[in-house]
Every structure is written in structure tokens, then in C-alpha cells.
Write a structure and sequence with these properties.
Residues 1-12 have a biased composition (Basic residues). By secondary structure, the chain is an alpha/beta fold. It has helices spanning 32-38, 59-67, 80-85, 87-92, 102-109, 130-136, 152-164, 182-188, 203-212, 250-255, 278-288; strands at residues 54-57, 73-78, 98-99, 118-122, 141-147, 169-173, 197-200, 215-220, 226-227, 236-242, 258-261.
Length: 297
């Protein structure tokens, strides 16, 4: 009996990666190495913002920045879907986005950053003086002042609240306060382009300046007798909020025309809940301080 030839499996040592694998994906987009290369400049170095600029991200924050003619902008990266949604704004500002997939955007900002398909290089906005804001205020106005609040997410959330309730500006100290950053702008969700941030050198002096300009200065203090229900509904009003836990500093409290608290349920103290997040407190106070006859009232 003659021997049957053995059937050997063909060698695939030189076959391309994935060849012969019926489950290999096709059209799955650029490889991680391609995305990494797209996030580097011509010299192979990681792409960084220009001097003094930062990378703004988040769809609403970027959209609002594109609508703001006073905002200085630079390079722009976006997915095809995001580019389509922003087409009219991009055409109006004569901006040609750099096409990018989400992996490339992750490389630019870092894994886990919620960029929503857009990154815009921007420079910080010019910040007006307190005197300029006062001059622009009418007989009925609302301002927010922050005493030693350092968390950029809290400042961003307060900006968003201020935009909702029509406050003219948010004022914070030149020191011990966050600069304009991507995280602050992202949390503000576009409000940074609408509500001015004002830096003040001395909070006590700023309170005096506001009082001379006819503002009733009210501080939020958990030990106050009056509540936010007692806030005046007329005239010019400046609300001051302190850091969570610490609250307003002694000198700040003493300079206020009035102190108010936010009423809390009797059982809150039993649950060791004796204060609100400062951005939540700002929302409650600004709603309570709506001018009489406001369309939001």
C-alpha cells in the first residue's frame, strides 16, 4: 500500500498581521499609533497650546467661544460630527478645523477627558474692572462676589448659575482664586463668554466701592437670623458667598449690610449635613434675589 502524502498547514510567518483571522476588523479607523502621531507636531513632539493659551473643550463651551467675537482663538480640532454641527459658526469666523478622531483628541488632552469631539485653542478673556461693571449696571442689578473660593469647578458652576439668573458679573479675588482654565470654562458650559469674571485686589475695599455705588451688600452666613426670603427685591444687590465649611471671613461679614442664611430641614443637622455646595447655595440665593417683576419670578 502506497503512503498518502501528509497535508501540512501552509506557513503564515510572513503574512500581514490579521491575515487569516476571519474576525479581524476592517475599516475600524486609525490604529493607536496613527492617533498618537496625529497628536504630535512635525518634529514628533506632543502638541501643546501656544504661550498664554489653553485648550478649551466641551461642545457648549467651544460653541459659545466661537460665538464670542472678543475671544481670541487659534487652532481647532474636531470630529466630523462636531464639525457638521458647528458648520455655520466656523464659516462665519473663517475657521478650518483639523479633522481628528476621538482617539486623537484623547491624546491631546489625556485619556478620560470629556471633550465631546472638540478642542479649541483659546487665550483668556480680558477681565473688566469692578468700576467698569458698576458703570454698566442699571438701577436694578445683581452681582456675585466670592470670598476665598478656590475650586475652578465651583467658580464655573457659579458662572453658569449667574448667567441663568441674569447676574451682571461674578467677582473673585486676584489671589486665592482660580485663573481662567479649561476645567473652569467647561463647567461653566458657555457662561464664561456671557458673564464677566472680575478680579478684585481687596474684598473689603470692593464692598465699600459697591456700597458707595448704591449696592446693598448681603453675605450668606449659616448663623444669620434672616433668611434668603428676606432679600430685597428692588435696587442693586451684591451677594457674597464664602468657601464651604469656612464660610465668610470675619472682616467680610462685618462689612456686609445684611447677613442671610438658607433655611434647611431640621433633620439635616442630624445627618451631618450642615451646609450646601457653594454653587448650589449661589443658585438658591440668586433665585431668591430675583428682582420684583422679573420674568423668571
Amino acid at each position: 500500500m502506497s503512503k498518502q502524502p501528509k497535508h501540512r498547514r501552509p506557513k503564515t510567518r510572513n503574512a500581514p498581521a490579521g491575515a487569516g483571522d476571519r474576525h479581524a476588523p476592517t475599516g475600524a479607523g486609525p490604529s493607536p499609533s496613527a492617533s498618537s502621531a496625529a497628536a504630535r507636531d512635525a518634529m514628533g513632539a506632543p502638541i501643546r497650546p501656544e504661550r498664554g493659551a489653553y485648550f478649551l473643550y466641551g461642545f457648549h463651551a467651544v460653541q459659545a467661544a466661537l460665538r464670542n467675537d472678543t475671544r481670541r482663538i487659534g487652532r481647532f480640532w474636531a470630529t466630523r460630527q462636531a464639525t457638521d454641527r458647528l458648520a455655520d459658526l466656523l464659516a462665519a469666523r473663517d475657521i478650518s478645523p483639523r479633522a481628528a478622531d476621538r482617539a486623537t483628541l484623547d491624546q491631546l488632552l489625556g485619556e478620560g477627558t470629556v471633550h465631546q469631539g472638540v478642542i479649541l485653542e483659546v487665550w483668556p478673556l480680558d477681565e473688566p474692572s469692578l468700576e467698569r461693571i458698576i458703570a454698566a449696571c442699571g438701577p436694578v442689578a445683581r452681582l456675585v462676589l466670592l470670598d476665598q473660593i478656590t475650586d475652578p469647578h465651583n467658580v464655573g458652576a457659579i458662572l453658569r448659575t449667574a448667567a441663568v439668573f441674569g447676574a451682571e458679573a461674578v467677582c473673585l479675588q486676584a489671589r486665592n482664586a482660580p485663573p481662567e482654565t479649561a476645567s473652569l470654562a467647561k463647567t461653566a458650559s458657555g457662561a464664561l463668554e456671557r458673564v464677566p469674571l472680575v478680579r478684585i485686589g481687596n474684598l473689603s475695599q470692593a464692598i465699600g466701592t459697591l456700597q458707595e455705588a448704591g449696592f446693598w451688600v448681603v453675605g450668606l452666613d449659616g448663623t444669620a437670623r434672616d433668611t434668603v426670603r428676606d432679600l430685597p427685591g428692588e435696587g442693586r444687590l451684591a451677594l457674597i458667598l464664602g468657601a464651604e465649611g469656612e464660610g465668610l471671613r470675619r472682616l467680610t461679614r462685618e462689612r456686609c449690610d445684611m447677613l442671610v442664611r438658607i433655611p434647611m430641614a431640621p433633620d439635616a443637622a442630624k445627618a451631618a449635613i450642615d451646609s450646601l455646595n457653594v454653587s448650589n447655595a449661589a443658585a438658591i440665593a440668586l433665585y431668591a434675589a430675583l428682582p420684583a417683576g422679573s420674568p423668571l419670578d
